[in-house]
Amino acid sequence: MTTHTPRIFSGVKPSGGLTLGNYLGAIKRFVDMQGPQFETIYCVVDLHAITVWQDPAELTDATREVAAGYLAAGIDPSQSILFNQSQVSAHAELAWLFNCVARVGWMNRMTQFKDKAGKNAEKVSLGLYAYPSLMAADILLYHATHVPVGEDQKQHVELTRDIASKFNHDFKAEDFFPMPEPIIEGPATRVMNLRDGSKKMSKSGESDMERINMTDTADTIAKKFKKAKTDPEPLPETLDGLKDRPEARNLVDIYAGLSEVTPEQVIAEFAGAGWGKFKPALADLAVAKLGPISEEMARLMNDKGEIDRILGEGADKADAIAQPILDRAYDITGFLRSRKR
Ligand code: TYM
C-alpha cells in the first residue's frame, strides 16, 4: 500500500455561478480540512464543465470565478494546491485508460447521468456519459485517500473505488491505486432547492429564486429566504418534528451549516418560533457569512492576473505529483516508452 500523508482531492465544475450548496456541501468543508493532517488538492474541473455546452468566453470567466470562490472562502495556496484541470493533461490521459477499465453497465447505473440526460439520452454528449471515469482519474491520479463531496457525488466516488480495484486486479498491480473514501459530513451535504424541498439546489435550476448564489447581494439573499417555500407550522421542539417537512428541514440545515452548529442546536434555539422570526434570522446569518466572501470574490475578479498566476503555479505542483503516477499506470498497462523524457 502506498503510504503518505492522507491526501484530499476534490473539485468544483465551472458551469455557471457557485451556489450555497457548493459552499456548504463542498468549499467550506475544503477550507476546514486544510491543515497538517491532510495534503489538500483542490481543482476547478473545467474538463467536466464541457460535458454540457459552455460558451467559450463564459467558461474562461466561470473558471476564474470558481477559483475566486475557493480563494475568497479561505483556500490558501500556500497550504493547498489549487489549479484548473485542463492544465494538467494527465487527467484526460488517465481517464482514457479508465474508459477501457470501467464497464458500460457501471455507467448505466449512474443516477446523476439518468437525471441529467432525462428523456434526451440519445442527444447528450458522450462525455456526459463517460464523466465518472474522468472523475475517477482526477482522484486516483494523485493517489488521493479522502474525497470530501456533497451527497450527490457519493455514487461517483464509489465507482472510483470499483475502477481502482478492477485496474489493480486486471493488471495484477495490487494496491497501486488506493481505495479513496468519500467524506460526506456535516448538516448541509444536500442543500435543497428553496422552492421545492424534494429537489437539490443547483446552478442549473430554472429560476434564480430556487438558489442562493455566492455572489448574491444582501437584499437578494433576504428576498430569496423570505420567499422560500415553507409550511404554516412553527419550528418544532425536536428535530423529529421536521420529519415530513422537507422545506423546513432544509432551512434548519442551512442555518446549522452556516453557523457551524448541529440542526439539534438550531431547533433548541428556535423551538416554537414562526417563520416570521426564523427567516430573517437566517437571512442575516447568510449575509454575515457570505457577504465578506462575495466582496472578496469581486475584488479577485478584478485581478485576473493574480487568479491566473495562482492557478498556474498550482497546476505545476499538481503536475509534479500526477505525471509520475500516470507514467507508472502506463508502464503497468504495457505501453512502450519509445520516447526518452
Ligand atoms: P459540482 O460542480 O456539481 O459540485 C461541486 C461540489 O458541490 C457539492 N454540491 C452540493 N452539496 C450540497 N448541496 C448541494 N445542493 C450541492 N450542490 C453541489 C457537490 O456534491 C460537489 O462536492 N463531479 C463533481 C466535480 C468533480 C469532483 C472530482 C469532485 C469532478 N472531479 C473529483 C470530487 C473529486 C461535480 O460535478 O460537482
TrEMBL record:
<dbReference type="InterPro" id="IPR001412">
    <property type="entry name" value="aa-tRNA-synth_I_CS"/>
</dbReference>
<dbReference type="InterPro" id="IPR002305">
    <property type="entry name" value="aa-tRNA-synth_Ic"/>
</dbReference>
<feature type="binding site">
    <location>
        <begin position="21"/>
        <end position="22"/>
    </location>
    <ligand>
        <name>ATP</name>
    </ligand>
</feature>
<keyword id="KW-0547">Nucleotide-binding</keyword>
<keyword id="KW-0067">ATP-binding</keyword>
<feature type="short sequence motif" description="'KMSKS' region">
    <location>
        <begin position="200"/>
        <end position="204"/>
    </location>
</feature>
<feature type="binding site">
    <location>
        <begin position="150"/>
        <end position="152"/>
    </location>
    <ligand>
        <name>ATP</name>
    </ligand>
</feature>
<dbReference type="Pfam" id="PF00579">
    <property type="entry name" value="tRNA-synt_1b"/>
</dbReference>
<dbReference type="InterPro" id="IPR002306">
    <property type="entry name" value="Trp-tRNA-ligase"/>
</dbReference>
<keyword id="KW-0030">Aminoacyl-tRNA synthetase</keyword>
<feature type="binding site">
    <location>
        <begin position="13"/>
        <end position="15"/>
    </location>
    <ligand>
        <name>ATP</name>
    </ligand>
</feature>
<comment type="similarity">
    <text>Belongs to the class-I aminoacyl-tRNA synthetase family.</text>
</comment>
<keyword id="KW-0648">Protein biosynthesis</keyword>
<dbReference type="InterPro" id="IPR014729">
    <property type="entry name" value="Rossmann-like_a/b/a_fold"/>
</dbReference>
<keyword id="KW-0436">Ligase</keyword>
<comment type="function">
    <text>Catalyzes the attachment of tryptophan to tRNA(Trp).</text>
</comment>
<feature type="binding site">
    <location>
        <position position="138"/>
    </location>
    <ligand>
        <name>L-tryptophan</name>
    </ligand>
</feature>
<dbReference type="GO" id="GO:0004830">
    <property type="term" value="F:tryptophan-tRNA ligase activity"/>
</dbReference>
<protein>
    <recommendedName>
        <fullName>Tryptophan--tRNA ligase</fullName>
        <ecNumber>6.1.1.2</ecNumber>
    </recommendedName>
</protein>
<dbReference type="InterPro" id="IPR050203">
    <property type="entry name" value="Trp-tRNA_synthetase"/>
</dbReference>
<feature type="binding site">
    <location>
        <begin position="200"/>
        <end position="204"/>
    </location>
    <ligand>
        <name>ATP</name>
    </ligand>
</feature>
<feature type="short sequence motif" description="'HIGH' region">
    <location>
        <begin position="14"/>
        <end position="22"/>
    </location>
</feature>
<dbReference type="InterPro" id="IPR024109">
    <property type="entry name" value="Trp-tRNA-ligase_bac-type"/>
</dbReference>
<keyword id="KW-0963">Cytoplasm</keyword>
<feature type="binding site">
    <location>
        <position position="191"/>
    </location>
    <ligand>
        <name>ATP</name>
    </ligand>
</feature>
<comment type="subunit">
    <text>Homodimer.</text>
</comment>
